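Every protein is a chain of amino acids, and every chain bends into a shape of its own. Below is the pair of lines this work produces for a single protein:
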Amino acid sequence: MNKAGQGKYKQQTQGKPSPEFEAGWNQLEVAFQRLIDYVENNFDVSKAAKDGAAPGSNEWNTWQMQAYTCVYNLCTKNEGSKHGGVASQQILYQRAQAMIEKYLSERVNKQVQDKKGEELLRNVYTAWDHHLLVVRWGKFMFRYLDEYYTKNQNICNLRIMMLKCFCTAVYEKIKTDLRQVLLAEVQKERDGIEINRTYMKLVIQLFVDMGMDTNEIYENDFEKYFLQDTAKFYKRAASLWLNEDGGNFTYLRRVEKALNEEHNRAISYLHGSSLQNVINCVETELLMNYQMQVLEDPDAGTEALLMNNKTEDLGRMFTLFKRIQKGLEPMSAILRDFIKKEGKEINKKFCDGDIDGNAYIDASLDLYDKYTEMFQTYFENFPIFHKARKEAYEVFINETLQPAKGETTGSKVTTSELLSTYCDNLMKNEKVDPDELESKLHKIVCLFTNISDKDLFQEFYRKQMSKRLLVSKTDNDNERQLIAKLKMKMGAPYTSKLEGMIVDKGLSAETQKNFLDYCRAQDIELKLEFSAQVLTTGFWPAFKIDTLNPPEILSTHMDLFRQFYDHKTQSRVLKWVHSLGTATISSKFKKGQKEMIVSTYQACVLLLFNTKSAMTAGEMGKELALPLDEVKRTVHSLAFGKFAILKRTNDIKKKQITEDDEFEVNDDFNHPTRKFKIPNVIKTVGDPVEKTDENRRHVIEACIVRVMKSRKQLSHLDLQTECIRQLSNYFKPDMKVIKKRIEDLIQRGYLERDEVDRNIYRYLA
């Protein structure tokens, strides 16, 4: 009986669930059909509510819970576990899948089959939207299966299973037609026809969802073709836009509009991963493929826009071409060449005499300022444009200029000299506004950074600054302001001498106060207002030291100051630089008393006439112990021109002075003002250019020794390259000079050549 019973049980349950299971399944089929009816009722919630079947209603919640409970009971009963029958969970999963497939093939396929164009789009939109609702509520009905069976058996969850069913039963049959309809809709929108973006977004999302949490199907079945169509469309559009009226003038505006439209289109109904791909496609067709044609267009390219100051169009060009790889390099190269051309035009105006040195620097600063504003406003301060400007400036600003007119006619000048003179004029301008000065100094330093001969500028500036400080024609705070900016750019060693000069000027004022205190303490009465400025030799330019024997009234005070200074500082030696001194001489002429501001040489010559009524140039030289040439130069400034304080004793009209020419005071001299200055040139020893060349030889030698001491052995090329690298911040070393310095160091025993390879040097300790 047991055997018969067992056999009967197997026959009844093998591959066939029990009546209880079938009864439960029938309830689930009714619940699923009710869901389908609700979904296909076009989401008429009001109608469903009348029937008590709307989501959220009590009846809806009741039958959903009944369906869930039914699934729970069927799964937990574990049908057939004792007698080897089919597990209820597996049967339930299989039947749920079959029910979904049947619904899709019998009802959904009919809605989309053989439909074309917009009708297909609408029906797929509806079918897919319905199916998503089915998935949503179906997952709830069969949730217990997801929580236990699918996880334990490592098979697709309910959501994935239902999506796969849709993919097999519906999607695979319509995907080609659907894609064509979608692309046609996109084309219509690009042509300016309004389309339903809501439909587009949901239907395109179908391609994404068919990938089951990957984008593979979306990319292969839709995005690939979308990008192909996009490329074709904009390839035709680019050719059309470039050849129509307006051409390149309107081309970038159209590109800008197209990119905005495609960006908006992508975020409206494409998957998020497509945005950059679409933008890249449009950029390739409209920008990359026509880059040089657009940038070099003679009427609307970069140079044409620069020439016509079309800054907004340049900003648009920048904004668009920065999007593509290396898109700004050709634009910056054109900009560099254009600035170079503008700079050379400024050079030409200066050489032709149309502008002077100050106007030349002003024009160079204005040009620099113009592009600074352009870079900030339209180019987002991208470094590539600053680099292009620097390269352009380094070309034209470092050209040696030879004016055909003006004070420097025929002589060669450099921007280093012109910029230093510009600073000199600026510092001597007492009326300059502090804010304006700050702005000017900032621009000056910006221009300075492009000069290759920074050491030459330093020498010129030091020479002119010394004159300003000595005659008190500058504000020390203004000097410090520029020195601080130069220090930030070049470092402390570059400005150490300039800072030392400022310090000397301050110490001299303190020294003068101490000198007067010393005289009062010694009960010494000064017969004139005597002031001496003590300068440190290493800081100041090398001025001429002479053997002047001043008149007694001057020499007495000079000896007194030396006595004071030796008492105060025994370790330092004073050397008088008479060529830098000034004096105020009071003299009475027939037409009134006059006060003359003169140099020390001029004062000494004039004081000689307190003891003699007339003297020859030769006698003056012997009396003052000055070379005859210096006497001639000084007397010439006092006897000829606007300030004829002296006159020849005879009526000879020539301006050349000989040793025997005799001079006397011109009692008939008159001047409209009571106090005036008689010009005199302060002479320094050596030309700044020659001095700079000499300094460079020493600097190059020191650099060679420093490099070889560190490296011990180097080839000629490597040593030369390293020297240029280390010194290029101050000046551009001449390779011939480097070679000569190497040869000189070899002769002096600092270096030696390798016996085998004569192109290799070794350092000798």
